[in-house]
């Protein structure tokens, strides 16, 4: 089949403003972490409604440092969804703690808080324990806001108050997103937890090519995060190189080389300034898909009636940041997910899968996990695929993606 159109999974939406900012950095002669990083931190903190934001060289590093400053100790257990990206669990392992994989809601693919509750009240309910394994003491949790839909953080906060020390939000998908609380108030990443980690990876809603940030309300923690991201030094290079500044610097604790360079930070700055517009364009794509794909047999959409109910009502749609548009093919679909991906590729449309649940990967099988441990995550994964979703997706491309999928599933 010859494709009528090529639709990539992602195309960066960068223009003159980004070029100008990067040139400003080059012209300044200062390439590593300095003015642009500080400006980005200030802009992101203001946009996300947090007091402090500390830039890092990627989102994985942001998660690592957020966990390191959370009080979670080596050997402790940290609850995470099995349906997540490698980085969530890696960061837990980097601090010497143990990722305790959990079931997810089959529709939102966010942590199943009933499962979490059952494990907190009796660790014997966890699949590893049911097979005779012993779970470590659980003292933390990393909720992941999948695709840009925030988990119910009020409920997570309630668990944290009663049962464990630390919550770190993996907010890699939520730039600007929020959840409505019980009183109708907006809850944003990092507000009810100790810290939230953002990613500015190439495909993210706001990108610096590579980059990340930790959001927090705690000044001392922010200071420590700044230290840890640069070798544990008492002050960063930008301060040391200031005219008249002392060259003296102390290594106060074991740190990392995780600082966000100015060249990268500069790339993201103009996007933060137009983040509302970028978000609105993503939302418009999601709404167009919902309209064009309604009623396709065997296809479940992340904003259809069933999904809206699972996320807690139509009010929650407004806070969805639409990082991904992940659809699910039901068991009744005309073709399998992999066949559907192949046929979309034949038509020139690149789709991806976010993600294979962690417990189905060899590394986690070595930790004792088995197929069948998390049936809801497995069933959803079977049919899961992400359609192209980015701010610059053109109307004819949206129509072509939807028409292609409709054709494949309707026959
Ligand atoms: C849910 C989630 N967490 C963490 C990360 C890690 O971010 P980064 O790629 O910037 O290290 C990603 C990245 O794509 C992600 O999707």
Question: Mean pLDDT across all residues, rounded?
Answer: 96
User: Could you tell me the strand content as a percent range?
Assistant: 5-15%
Number of H- or I-type helical stretches: 16
| Helix/strand/pairing category | alpha/beta
Count of DSSP strands: 12
CATH level-3 fold name of the largest domain: Aspartate Aminotransferase, domain 2
Low-confidence stretches are none
The gross shape turns out to be: globular
Summed up, the domain count is 2
- Biggest sheet, strands in spatial order? 1-9-8-5-4-2-3
Under CATH, the homologous superfamily of the largest domain reads Type I PLP-dependent aspartate aminotransferase-like (Major domain)
State the helical fraction.
25-40%
For the sheet with most strands, the description reads:
7 strands, mixed
Determine the N-to-C terminus distance: 15 Å
Summed up:
This protein has helices at residues 16-28, 35-48, 59-68, 86-94, 113-121, 127-130, 153-163, 219-228, 237-240, 262-273, 275-293, 305-311, 337-346, 362-365, 375-382, 395-410; strands spanning 52-56, 77-81, 98-102, 138-141, 166-170, 179-180, 186-187, 195-199, 212-216, 299-300, 325-329, 384-387. The longest helix has 19 residues, at 275-293. The chain contains 16 helices and twelve strands.
How do the helices and strands line up, and which of them pair or pack?
Layout: H1 16-28, H2 35-48, E1 52-56, H3 59-68, E2 77-81, H4 86-94, E3 98-102, H5 113-121, H6 127-130, E4 138-141, H7 153-163, E5 166-170, E6 179-180, E7 186-187, E8 195-199, E9 212-216, H8 219-228, H9 237-240, H10 262-273, H11 275-293, E10 299-300, H12 305-311, E11 325-329, H13 337-346, H14 362-365, H15 375-382, E12 384-387, H16 395-410
Parallel strand pairs: 2-3, 2-4, 4-5, 5-8
Antiparallel strand pairs: 1-9, 6-7, 8-9, 10-11, 11-12
Helix pairs in contact: 1-10, 2-10, 3-4, 11-16
